[in-house]
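Re-run with default settings, no changes from the original entry. Doing this only to confirm the output is reproducible before filing.
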Amino acid sequence: TAGESRKLNSELSSEARDSGDVIEPSLTRLGPEPSGSSSIEREFETWKSKLTPIAQSLGNIFGFQAATAELKSTRESSVDKCAALLWNTAQLPEAPKSGVEAWAIEYLHSKMFKSYKRYISHTGMNFAPRGVESLASAVSSDAKLCQLVLFELIYEESANLRYTPEFMLFAFHLMASAVSAKGTDCKAVPDAGLDFSPGDYVDSIVKPLHQFINLHVRSNAPLHLSLGYDDINETFVDMSKIQRMLSMEAESGTSSYARFRQFMRFAGSAQDKDQSLSQVFKKTYREHLGWMTMYVNFHRQFTLLAVLFHLMVVHAFHGLKRPELFSTAAVTAAVIHMVIEFRVLVFDRKAIFHSRIESIARVLFALVILISALALVQGIISGTVFAVVGTPYLMLIFLNIFG
């Protein structure tokens, strides 16, 4: 109320300390305890009352950490965060006056799951059992609320694996494919094999993968042999490796999550390299330290600046009298491009563009440009003939530079 606000401002002013000419209120004091009398608190509690049963049911299914008498757990933390996000969303200026709860769920879900939809579209992944509408494919407002809570539970317990977003999306898809939701009542699909004790997700999934990453990050192996977060992350877009992780029979149940959990528990503790996580997680990019790495990473900027400089030199000496000479900027671009492609294809063993075939084709095109430039210097061909080859190549280079 206005009276309580004036009282709080008075208390803050009385605690202010003099710092020169500026009076600063103390920001270290605790605010007033929640009383449940304000509309904000009541709306917040309404969201929490909807979210708590979802978090508890999903927590029991997948073994997310449970609260103790002294401490709250992942479940309570996820409920608090989701409730805050949904309440804040409902306060946006564009929120409707009626049906605001369903609108807030839809709006927040569309924002949070945009990357997930792209991930599923890119991989073509679908591990939901046939004939069952799983949470992964459900589109009702209640189902989307369950999806928000499930992803937040995964995020809360994944620790540093949060920096591997494709893993997060993969784990969410496996879990969502293994449960169904009637309203906000989440249950495991038939024969899913899901009923784990609290803490199982951390013990079975997070710990083995985190320890594997930590082993490589802290190792003294050369950079091009040591795995990093990017290498782990890119594994979860490779369907052949994903299928390998899901090929092991689970102790109970047939769901994809149960099989993935079994693989992580077995491979995470295996001593034989051929049976450990190393059988799946490989180096996806051979990194090398040095100036050439920076040159490759910023090749578009270097190419653009070099080509523009070439064009400026042509204009400085010839102006617009011989426009065909502007196409000779293709020679500069071709030299740069061949150096980059040689480095990437030979040392990094990876195509800089969409495929190795495309990269090799571009190298051959650049070679044609250099041979044509040599013929131009020798007087075998004219500038006009060279422009027929050089201009399309320049256009290709600029298309690549500007995406």
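The chain has 16 helices and four strands. Confidence is low (pLDDT under 50) at residues 15-19.
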